Amino acid sequence: MNMIPSDVKIHPTVLFSIIDSYERRNEKMTRVVGTLIGTNIQGNIEVNDCFVVPHRDGDEVALDVEFAKNSMNAFRKINPSVSIVGWFSTGNDIPNTSCLIHEYYARETVSPIHLTVDTNLKNNKPEVKAYYSTELGIPERKQGTLFVPIPIEITSYDSEQLAINLFQDGKFSTKRIVKPGMDFVNLKLALDDIYLMLNSVTDYVDKVLAGKIAMDSNVGRSLVKIIDSIPLLDAQTFDTLMTNQMNDLLMVQYLSNLVQVQLTLNEKLALI
Amino acid sequence: MNQNDMPVFCDVTAEEQIEALKAFCVPLGAKIISGNSQDVLADLVKNMGAFYAKEISETDLEMVLNSLVSLIIISPEDKCAKLASQFCENLLKASLPERYGVVKLRILSNLFHGLISTSKNRYTVFVYLAKCSLAAKNLQYLQLDLDLIKKYLKTWQSSIEETQVLYRLLFEATSQMNDSQNALKFINELLSTYTKDTASKSRDDAHRCIVYCINDPNIFIFDNLLLLEPIKFLEGELIHNLFTIFVSGNLNQYTEFANSHKQILIQFSMDHEKNINKMRILSLMSLAENSKDLSFDLLQNELKISADEIESFVIDAIRTKCIRCKIDHLARNVTVMSVSYRTFTKQNWHALKERLEKWRENLAAVDQNLTNILAQPALLQMS
Prior knowledge:
The complex is a heterodimer of chains A (272) and B (383). Chain A is 47% helix and 24% strand. With 272 residues, chain A is of the alpha/beta class. In chain A, the strands form two sheets. In chain A, strands 9-8-7-6-2-3-1-10 form an eight-stranded mixed β-sheet. A two-stranded antiparallel sheet of chain A has the order 4-5. Chain A starts with 6 loop residues before the first strand and ends with a helix. Chain B has 383 residues and is mainly α. Among the domains of chain B are: 284-339, Winged helix-like DNA-binding domain superfamily/Winged helix DNA-binding domain (Arc Repressor Mutant, subunit A), CATH 1.10.10; 353-382. Chain B has a three-stranded antiparallel β-sheet. In chain B, a hairpin with a 4-residue loop joins β3 and β4 (333-339). The longest helix of chain B is centred in the last third of the chain and has 29 residues, at 346-374. Chains A and B meet through β8, β9, α5, α6 and α7 of A and β1, α1, α3, α5 and α18 of B.
């Protein structure tokens, strides 16, 4: 079976943990390294999680192998289907010492990948790169290692995406604090988003009709496809539908609040 | 950024590496000159056939060739071009068993990544990578991201001819693998490289494009190709007429054309039966654009099929994702829910705008309702 990595999908939680662990590193550490956990299906790698492994850099590199093994066993208890797919290191390039760590991981799993996350922002952004290693030399005498880059894609589950969108909202707030809103508030925000997008789309169509933008029939077709995929209702029916749903929802919310009040009251009375 | 994106770690010096390769190569029957290491390297690349003349395992071969790659990428710029192109040429021609095809691709891909990213040599390697992918029927290591390729071509300052060679190869590789979307993308780019003045040279490419669009069973919409210079250039020719029928015509027009110009179908080796099938689906799309309810009688009449065939035909049509519809056997009717327009005219844009406006109004109404609800904090604050 061909296990040579051909592409890597990374979940945002992995990148978050890597950056977070870099922020919390010990004072003298120049970088952090750790194990990447996920699945390797015929070279298509998906990284779902990771953990930091203590190590010592310098002239000689030392990795706490015992710690790595124990942590991995703990992870297997939670989810037996995942395995080690490789390892990560912060930094922009691959220093010599990385070869030794890579050799350790090559013993733990078939064709491990190596992920580098540039936490020093050398090119003004946290560049993420992935590599797999291949050997060079002549038969029976290995003389070196090549780190071949592999394309990366950042993917996320729906729930992860939701959390990320929320985090992004905090980017411009001075307090740097965001709170998940209530159901209705979220709904309203989503509506506002769609409204904004619709505005820019309508704007685009207007420009096309005015001849400012060249007519691209493929764009037009894609837009029609989107509109076709939602049911077209007139305002009246839509309103009734919406109000009914909304009334139900409000009723449920009202009743649950009532129950909550009742319980609190009960607690207070019991204390007297 | 003047660097490569493939770090190499070597335990020995380049000279030792070359000596080791030579020592491995000579017993296999190759005559390698002695001299300074650059000359030896050149000779090794020239005679690299020796490495795989006798049986060698995939992993071993990969190791040896990787070693060569690592030496080529560190050789001085003036020698690098010749080494790289000879290496690629030898690898492409190497007659190895089929399962070694993927090894070739990996090696070429390594060489590509190992070369300095602005180096023109990367173009050479990319072309060979495309050729090898074509031969090995494997697109795994071939970069197909058009934006990235355009960026590459710009940094390499490739000429129009070079660009055309590359797009043509990428088109061949993808169309061979039935990757219709990408194939259409590359042939489109290829034809876009021609201008009004050079359109006369594009005849072969334009013909291939038309034949491809008509023959490929997965693509139905290609009206934007009509705007390209090479296709415009063919205007008035039979093949152009045929293409226009496939863009916007119907089944009747096609059969009429095919009856009077049988030779052109043979000339471009098209299959009449397949064409008819495709025209049926295209005609159905045209019909669906004009009316949301299509009776069985109308379909039988327009598409020349029997009543029994309608169901399987409609299922085939839905499978193309160009149309969404339901069959009502009792009313002998097909109800269309949505259809991709074969051509997208100003009229369609107007209709699109109307529907967008309507959607926006509805949304505004919902938004208003919600604001009203949110304005009553008494209901919400307890939670």
